[in-house]
Amino acid sequence: xxxFSSVLACLLVTGTxxxxxGGNNNGNKPAANGGDxxxxxxxxxxxxxxxxxxxxxxxxxxxRKVTIKIHYPTPDLTEVRAQEDDKIKRFQEVxxxxxxxxxxxxxxxxxxGVKMAANEAPTFFNTYATExxxxxxxxxxxxxxxxxxxxxxxxxxxxxxxxxxxxDGKVYGVTQKGYVTTTMINKxxxxxxxxxxxxxDWTWEDMLNTAKGAADPKKGISGIAPMGKGNEAGWNxxxxxxxxxxxxxxxxxxxxxxTFNSEAGxxxxxxxxxxxxxxxxVPQDWALGWGDAVGAFQQGRTAMVMAGSDGVIEQAxxxxxxxxxxxxxxxxPAAEKGGKHTGVLGGDYLVINPNATKDEQEMAFRYITFDxxxxxxxxxxxAILQQRKADGKYFIPPLLDYYAADSxxxxxxxxxxxxxxxxxxxxxxDIMALLDGKPEAQYNTQDYYATMSNVIQELFAKEGTDSKAxxxxxxxxxxKKFFDTIKVE
Length: 489
Hints:
By secondary structure, the chain is α+β, with helices and mostly antiparallel strands.
């Protein structure tokens, strides 16, 4: 469940240009992407011939006028808008029959129903990994299985991400990029306090000791800033639920049953109590949303923050003035030595409006995948890196992108990054072997996050809370208000 700041949204669009990132995010911030009938023709890539044949078959979609309303960046993202405008121009050179209407509406779970009812939703729009079941069950996303099956590069798409929008064997969206929640550490702050950098294969105890050692409450410096406001508070905590071996929910007898009030949940909540009251490592002003926590990290007011890596590092390096060697990216800590470094797996997706015509759905699919796996996408990436270098800014690639890292295109992308190794942030090579991504729950995830946020706030505000009682009450609320209304087929 992820919700992104403007900077992270910018990176997401850049990831799309690379063509080529998933609630907001409980670690990136909680969220926080064709149609029926006969199989559609394979999607045309940007590198294909752009001249239409002189004698096209009457059923050739390129010979019919089609209008699509596209997902467009918000006004504050001027650089990203310029990049999208360039994509529009290139797309219309290949498909001059397509009229493009820009729509900067950003997906919001409280608005999508109204948009659909009024037939005002774009032809395609962005959404998050948490929304797949919800949108499919509401009938608010098109089944694009035929378009997907005819897509030339489907086998090079990152399966870990794409599978979030494949439900019962049908495809309902295209991944842009994703994340596994990680922990970013300000090494400069650790060095200043003489705190040793923990091993990459670290544990909760290591996190506790590192946070305690880096904290300086009298100076307003925290060792770690767990998010304590908004749905992201519940999202951040869920990483620890997963690490302790817990689950959010289970399906039993055709019903969704809350399971987070388990021994694992109690263990995870007790760890938060240790960070807050034993180590005194949490900010005194703990009511921090995603932007607040990331801002504190950027400004050197907290030594650690938990989120999707690239958005945090982007702000730390390009706005906070930190150097790449100062910002370390770690997997989430294991509950105990030898345990899994599980982090919430989320992502960003583009989905197609089911109310669109078959032609509109096909052109929307072609637009979404236009730069994917293309030479134009690599050229766009190279241009972005050139500009970053000219502007004296760093570029932070996502840990997980839309393409499989070991695919042919993944290798080509790495070769472009290698040309600009002085400005491209380098992740520790050991991290990928330790990352363990666990998908967010598919039913009412945002409602669960919101309920758990209230629990986290009570824990941070009042010492001596009863973890079991808190979790039992929260599970009862989620069960009665949300899960009991769901009937699983």
